[in-house]
Each structure stands twice: as C-alpha cells, then as structure tokens.
Amino acid sequence: MKTRLPVARTLKALDRALAHLRAEGESVALVPTMGALHAGHLTLVRQARRKAERVVVSVFVNPTQFAPTEDFSSYPRRLAADVAALAEAGVDLVWAPDTAVMYPDGFATRVSPEGPALAGLEDAFRPHFFGGVATVVAKLFGQVRPDIAVFGQKDYQQLKVVTRLAADLDLRVRIVGVPTVREPDGLALSSRNAYLSAEERARAPALHRVLADCAARISAGRPLKAVMESGRKALARDGFAVDYLEARHAETLAPVRSVKDGPIRLLVAAKLGTTRLIDNLAV
C-alpha cells in the first residue's frame, strides 16, 4: 500500500518531517510553487528528483508579491488536487503553510534585492514584486534548508534574482533553472493561462512566435534595435498590449546593443485582455 504523502502546515511539523527525510544523510531538493500545479511544475519536480534523493515542494500563495490591483484573492488554490499530483510524482513532502505561519503578527523584516531585480523589466511594472519574492524565498530556504532549489526559466528575471540572492547571502543552496515547458503551439505553461478566453487562447501563441522570429533575425545579423521594434509592432497587431519586449544580457539582464554584448536573452510581458503573459527565449 502506497504511503500517504505528508503535508506539513506548521514549522514544528516541517522540522519533524525534514529530520525524518535527512535521517540517512540524503540530499534534499526544494521546488517552491504557489500551487495550481500544471505540467510545468511537475517537470520541475522530475528535475528535482534527478538532482537529489529527497524532494520537498512548497505550496504557498505569497501575498507580498501581489500589488493591491493584482489577483491575489482570485489566484487559484486547489491544495488537495496539488497534493494528489505530487504524490503521483513521487514527492517526499509538501510544505503548505498559511499566511499566519509565514508572516506572523509582528513580522517586520523584508529582503530588498538589487542587481537583476532592478533591471527595468518586471520591476518597472510590478515594483513590489521582487521584494516579496526574495523575502519568501529566503524564508523557504531557511525553513527547508535544501541542498538544491529548482525554478522554471519562464520567470527568467525571478530566476536571476533568486540566484543572486542565494549567492549574496551565502545560503548554501544550488539554484537549478529548468527550461520552459510549452503547449504544442508554443504557449508557455502558466497558471494564468486559465484566465484567457477561448479567442484569447487562440491568439496567445503569437507571443512565443514573435520571440522566436526576433531571435532568428538577431542570429542572422539584423540590427538588434530594429528587430525589437518590429517585434513590438507585431505583437500589437496580434492584439497584445506590450509592457516590454527587450534584449538583455542573459546573466546580468543589463541592456545590450548588439550580439557582441551577449549572451542575449529576449524577455517579453504583454496583456491579452486582462491576462498578463510573460515569456523569454535565448538568442
């Protein structure tokens, strides 16, 4: 009979479960999530299982990374379904604290990241976001104390912020980035895809097509500035309201002028209706 997947909801329960997992000195990988799991998350879990002997998945919808105008209250929450999927995927432990556990009364300390967190991409449109991410990730690393933490490359700026955070604060965790998982038509998997109407969903793959076209043209030697401007216009024709479409240094996220400044990563954020989508692609 298969053992039920343990779900820790308090720090004491987490510590007991982690002590059991580490009893034989085995390595631990953490996959931080906000739940509403899809195939992309399960790909992260599979990668974590390849990298470590034990896998912990956190499920926590972090209020500090949502602005008052964003979708915190409506963000999908389906813990029972998530736990069932994680049990099937062979996860060893789910860490699912509530907000009062993560941010108890009197909580007064926050992490304020710089470097890639101030690249003028997501931070220009969601200035609260990376402070919330950095704070909750630092807490998760302190709570779980993983050897490895696995993040998706779809949230590319976030990946770079977390990588810098772990290095700068000597958190003794290796950050692993996993390539974006996509639908057959190229749309990056995201929990927010569920917000798209049928008509918007049909148009959404244009985001990846434009990225791929821009990357191909840059690789072929076309001027970078002209390619980016053409890409923005293409997205607008496809019905997107573009927040940014930028070519940046793949490691620092600093602006680049040509392929000589590379390696280059293309990053985009745009809205279809009320749904904001992000994606990125290497050149």
From TrEMBL:
This is Pantothenate synthetase. It comes from Rhodoplanes tepidamans (Rhodoplanes cryptolactis). Its main location: cytoplasm. It is found in: Cytoplasm. Belongs to the pantothenate synthetase family. The reaction proceeds by a bi uni uni bi ping pong mechanism. It catalyses: (R)-pantoate + beta-alanine + ATP = (R)-pantothenate + AMP + diphosphate + H(+). Catalyzes the condensation of pantoate with beta-alanine in an ATP-dependent reaction via a pantoyl-adenylate intermediate. Homodimer.
